Amino acid sequence: GESVGLHLPTLSVQEGDNSIINCAYSNSASDYFIWYKQESGKGPQFIIDIRSNMDKRQGQRVTVLLNKTVKHLSLQIAATQPGDSAVYFCAERWENRDDKIIFGKGTRLHILP
Amino acid sequence: NAGVTQTPKFQVLKTGQSMTLQCAQDMNHNSMYWYRQDPGMGLRLIYYSASEGTTDKGEVPNGYNVSRLNKREFSLRLESAAPSQTSVYFCAITGFLARGWELFFGEGSRLTVL
Q1: Which residues in B lie closer than 8 A to residue A96 (C-beta atoms)?
Q2: Contact flag A98-B31 (C-beta cutoff 8 Å)
Q3: Strand, coil or helix: what is A104?
Q4: How large is the C-alpha radius of gyration of chain B?
Q5: How many CB pairs under 8 A join A and B?
Q6: Cβ–Cβ contacts within 10 Å for residue B31, how many?
Q7: DSSP annotation string for B57-107
Q8: What is the pLDDT of residues B17-72, one digit of tens each?
Q9: Above pLDDT 70, what percent of chain A?
Q10: If residue A111 lies in a helix (H) or strand (E), which one and from where to where?
Q11: From B42, B101, B108, residue closest to A89, measured CB to CB
Q12: CA B49 → CA A31, A89, B22, B99, distances in Å?
């Protein structure tokens, strides 16, 4: 589960560079993973998802990679833009627990001009 | 955030007071969730409901009760509020769209307990 009291780590990236945000998940039986973006004062918004039977999935400027061996998920954002500045969370769905969805700690992405 | 409505959006309580956060959806989905998000931190699952009439504890259920009144509504109740429950509360629902399975969030309810 998530530790209480830890503040979000920050990733600073130059505008135009690629960003890689990492996430470790907890349940090896999770069957579905989602990345969310949360801007200040707003609720989380869906970015991209991946099922446990896949290793990679691409969207528009984003790619998600799944490594089930080490229970690791990453989100790659190509050509990072100022509008990408936000907090990014990964979430896992626990397959055997009636759609129980648990979020990771989150990473704040800061774009440098 | 169309489809998930939370009320109230803001609330200030004194320690020991009670209140209920309401969540309603118009998307006819089965699963509903309550999360809390403390400043500078991630979302933690309080309770969830996989279908009408069922509820299950999440990661941080202590101090809360929930009620799945019908398929549309899932309420979160604080019987005796404590300062540690100061947070932003998000209701969410799950369902399938054309691009797959998604978790939709409401706009959040900001609760301050003095």
Answers
A1: none
A2: yes
A3: coil
A4: 13
A5: 71
A6: 20
A7: E-S--TT-EEE--SSSB-EEEESS--GGG-EEEEEEEEEEETTEEEEEE--
A8: 999 999 999 888 889 999 999 987 889 999 999 889 899 999 999 999 999 989 99
A9: 90
A10: strand A107-112
A11: B42
A12: 19, 22, 14, 23
| Number of Cα atoms under 13 Å in the Cβ half of residue B31 | 19
β-pairing, A86-94 vs A100-103, is antiparallel
Look up residue A3 and give its two tokens: 């530790």
What CA–CA distance (Å, rounded) separates A29 from A32? 9
- B44 close to A103: Cβ distance less than 8 angstroms: yes
A45-97 per-position pLDDT tens digit: 889 999 999 999 999 999 999 999 999 999 999 999 999 999 999 999 876 66
What average pLDDT does the structure give for chain A? 88
Alpha-carbon span A61 to B39, nearest angstrom: 29
Using alpha carbons, select from A81, A64, A108 the residue that is nearest to residue A14: A81
When CB atoms are compared, the residue of B40, B59, B107 closest to A43 is B107
Mutate to test the interface with A, among B5, B30, B37, B43 (most CBs of A within 10 A): B43
**What's at A93, amino acid-wise?**
R
